[in-house]
Amino acid sequence: MQLKFPETVQKINLLYYSIIVIVLGTPLWWYTTDTYRAALPHSQITGLTEYKTLFSIPVGVCFDPTEVQHGRVEQIILSLKPFLLSRAFNQGRVIYDIDLSIAKKCGEQSFSILFTNDVVRPSKAEISPQGLKISFDKIERMIADVAEDILNYVELTQLQNHILALDDPTLHPILQDVRNAMAVATSYNILVSVVNPDPAAIKLDYNLVEGTKQYLEPFITELGSIAEVTYQTQVMRYVKLPHKPVKSGDVYFISENNLPHLINPIESKLGTSTTNDINLIIYLMEGKYSPLVIKTKDGDMKELPSFLSPQFGAVLLYDTSNKTTIDHSTTFNVLLPQLKQLLGLKSTNSADISPQEKFFMESRATLTHILKSIDTLNSLIRLVDSIPNMVIGDHIAGQIASSVEGINKAQTALSEGKLSEALHQASLARNAAEKSFSDPSILALLYFPDDQKFAIYIPLFLPVGLPLIVAYLEILKRWKKNKDKTD
After folding, report:
1. What is the Cβ-side half-sphere exposure of residue 106, based on CA atoms within 13 angstroms?
2. 432 near 403, Cβ under 8 Å?
3. Span 102-161, pLDDT tens digits
């Protein structure tokens, strides 16, 4: 027997179930399917792209008070300012400013200029341990040339090339310093490898641990303010070169054209896995290939058989003839200058890092971290705007806010000439930006679009919603029928 409830009871039940579905079910469905997105500082991030970073390079000016008055030096500094600004080539996203100020003592800053009459050639500027020596005679007659000398002294063009190359990849193949250098990172790992192609024929004491501790560790300590640098050592055996040295007269040579191919069999067994790895390779050559030279493209013989592989590392073909141990004073005196090139410096034979070189590396790293952080944050904002279902958690919003704050602090410190503080803040900003961009949680709902939501929830709501719809249609039909009767 079919149960029939009074019409009033049916309407009350219908209202009851409708309230449950609309008041409780719909908000619950909305909450469980909604994508949580913490508030992000869109305006601040987009504002960073329109703001040019001001980089102030402090240069101390010193002089002998017996040669010239203090007020005259101040006048010289003021007259140099417009010439320096006009030649600073403020291109791209950075404005460069040479901040000349009178120093209490020469040599206290990375860059010092000594105004003096004691110069052998007054028409020339000379670099001395005290800094750049410029004669008053030259300042009086050739102030525009003096400004050019100062810009060359601080190597501003080299720094600008590295920074401009961040936005213009076409500069990489043109500029050798930019092409050779590793990408600026907050951390590097140096892998020192000794390669012995034939242990039966080449029997040497490698002394690798002692050598790296004595020569490489002090170098890494100097880099401590620039990036977090670690190193590892390893010995590889039975790795043959694809091209054997060719004899020419009394020497053996390897053609410069074949050098890139020498790395291939070594690289495949190095075990490096990140773009921040720098390889220093000591390849042991059999004594029968002594003396060994590199034949350049011009036909010249390069006595030191070593070469640089851009953005990869340096290779030394070590002569093992009449040796029982590896002389690491020789190996690192060759590899460390090449390591400096990999860090963006110009080619040099010195294994030490000068104050000017350290300033350059810190400046390059700071500006790169700032610009890369801005680019990463803007990429993240564009990605968030293009994918509505992307989850943005509070921890990601915190990292983004921390990155924006670090960028602002770094830019302020740079404008005030506080490079160390700027580098620290810029490194924190870049790490925070990259962590937020690569956080796995932001991809949680990337492949969960709206059509899939309907496919999942319709089987749940349809059994409940369909009877309600039918019931309301039935009530509407009765209402129309009753209305027709009364009419």
Report:
1. 16
2. yes
3. 988 887 788 999 988 876 666 678 888 888 998 888 887 888 889 999 999 999 999 999
Is residue 38 classed as helix, strand or coil in its secondary structure? coil
Report d(CA 478, CA 443) in Å as an integer: 52
Structure tokens at 104: 């209490």
* Strand boundaries in 9-81, DSSP class E: 53-63
Secondary-structure breakdown of the chain: helix, strand, coil percentages, each rounded to the nearest 5: 50, 20, 30
3-state secondary structure of 230: strand
* DSSP-based three-state secondary structure for 289: helix
> Are β-strands 112-116 and 53-63 bridged in parallel, bridged antiparallel, or unpaired?
parallel
- Order the strands of the 94-102 sheet from edge to edge: 94-102, 53-63, 112-116, 131-135, 126-128
Residue with tokens 């006595």, as numbered in its chain: 303
Q: How many CB atoms lie within 10 A of CB 473?
A: 10
Handedness of CA 376, 382, 386, 389 (dihedral sign): positive
Cis check for the bond before 197: say yes or no (omega within 30 of 0): no
Phi, then psi, of 84 in degrees rounded to 5: -65, -40
170 burial level (CB within 10 Å; 0-12, 13-18, 19+): exposed
Cα–Cα dist 163/191, whole Å? 27
pLDDT tens digits along 414-448: 999 899 999 999 999 999 999 999 888 876 555 55
Can you say how many angstroms the Cα of residue 434 is from the centroid of all Cα atoms in its chain? 11
Predicted TM-score (pTM) of the model is: 0.85
Distance CA(377)–CA(403), nearest Å, equals 8
Three-state secondary-structure class, residue 188: strand
Q: Tokens standing for 240?
A: 């043959």
d(CA 263, CA 280): 12
The structure tokens 């193949």 sit at 173
Indicate the Cα dihedral angle 232, 233, 238, 241, nearest 10°.
Answer: 80
Smallest CA-to-CA distance from 161 within 42, 153, 423, 169 is with: 169
In angstroms, the CA 483 to CA 475 distance is 12
Collapsed DSSP state (helix, strand, coil) of residue 278: strand
Q: What is the mean pLDDT of residues 28-51?
A: 82
β-pair partners for 235 = 194
Question: How many Å apart are CA 57 and CA 416, to the nearest integer?
Answer: 9
pLDDT band at 1 (very low <50, low <70, confident <90, very high): very low
Q: Are 441 and 429 in contact (CB under 8 A)?
A: no
Distance in angstroms (rounded) separating the CA atoms of residues 326 and 322 = 11
Q: CB count, 10 Å around CB of 178? A: 21
